[in-house]
Each structure stands twice: as structure tokens, then as C-alpha cells.
Here is the input.
Amino acid sequence: MSIERGPAGGRTVVPRPHGDGLVRWWEPVGDVRASLVLCHGYAEHSGRYEAVATRLAQSGLAVWAVDLRGHGASGGERASVPDVAHLVDDLLVVLDRAHAARPALPVFLLGHSMGGLVATALALEHQDRLRGLVLSGAAVADPVGIEPLLELDPLPEVVLSSEMLSRDPKVGADYDTDPLNYRGPFRRETLRALTRGAHHVREHFAALRLPLLVLHGGDDAIVPAAASEDLFRGASSPDKELQVYPGLRHEILNEPEGPEITDRIAGWI
Here is the structure.
């Protein structure tokens, strides 16, 4: 951690990330309230969540993250996902680390986009190990519109536009120039895996019983907000909240309103 000058000359403790080549984590400030495992989205990496993780750690949360296989600094073919279950295995490694580091603390899970799909799949299998699930733009939409593409040869080139991420142009510019982001077209095996994964979790929404905080941008052109609405309606959780933010795009935590949304997550936890 370090001390930085805060508003009006005050001092603010700023957590710095730690890492061991596989997992990275941010030590909390002050009283530790809970552990939070964060799962990034498709084609990106956990380093893009530095500001979010730092803010969460300042609120007393021990934050953990990993680059999923095929993403960021991890091994594997870039953005290749043969099976969502493989990514669940990666996330379980971090969940184990968070539990082992502070076994007396509750553990929460935060997943964004594809990471929201992975986090939901993990939660369905390990609800007893989690205190709650937070989702941001979770990629759990009905994939019926994507499936016809998988039968075409060659597969049409689909590349995500960075303009869809945030209304802040700097977010898109930084995304495009980040060497750890994958900027090529979707791979066939990845689309197949994400399609199968979405079908699986949608068939089991009702099995979700743990506390849920479901967040989505109203102008999300990558994953429609209807995906989160479907999950919210389908989940059996007695403690669940849904917020669709009008005008916000896919990466709500990287929108200008991101700090306030991050604080809402910390407050909910």
C-alpha cells in the first residue's frame, strides 16, 4: 500500500496489487469485511480492473483476480475457450486462494460479461462456498441468434468494437492499445462454448438461491440488458436486486458513473 494526497490535502491509503504469476490480489484497508473474487470478461484481462479493485479494497474488501486461460498473461491460445467449465476451474483456483487466506471471512463473487457467465456457472455448482454473487453485464443472454453463425463456413468475422464499452472515449482508446487484450475475431470454438454455457445456466437459473446483485447498462450493445432481467426473474434467491442503468454501455464499471457503481457493490456486500 502507499499513501497518496487525497481531497483537500488529506491522506488516502491506496492498495497496490500483489501477484505471484498466476493470481493477483489487493490487500484491504482497515477492518476486513469480506473477500471478493473478480472474474474479467472475454478478450480482456484482470489488470483492467485495477481502479475497481483498488476502490473495493479501500472499502475493506480483500480482492482477488486471475487472467483466465487464453486471456491476458495466462497461457493458451488467445481468446480460445473450448469449454466454459475450463474457465470455471481457473476461477476455482482463485476461490480456493481467497478461502485459504482468510478462512473466517465470507467470500463473494463478481463477474463481468463472459466473466459473469463463468461466475454464474461456478455459483450454480458451489453456492455453499459463496455468500453472494454480483454480476455486471453478464453474458447469459439467450444465444439463439448466434447459433446460426456456427453453421457457416467460413465463420463471419465478428470483432467487438471498443466504442461499445463506455461513453468515455479514453476507455476505448486504452482498450485498443492494450497488448494484453485480444483484438481479433471470435473463434468458432469460443462461440460454441459460450453458447453451450449460456444455455446451461439459463436452464438452471431457478437453482440460484444465494444473494444476488445484478447490474447492467441500458445501452449495452454487446449483451442486452434482457439477459440480466431473465436471470433476475428466474433466480430463486429471496435476496436479490436488479439495476439497469439507462444510457450506460457494456462496461458499467468503466463508465463515468463507475466509481459510484463500485461503491454500491461494496455497500451491498
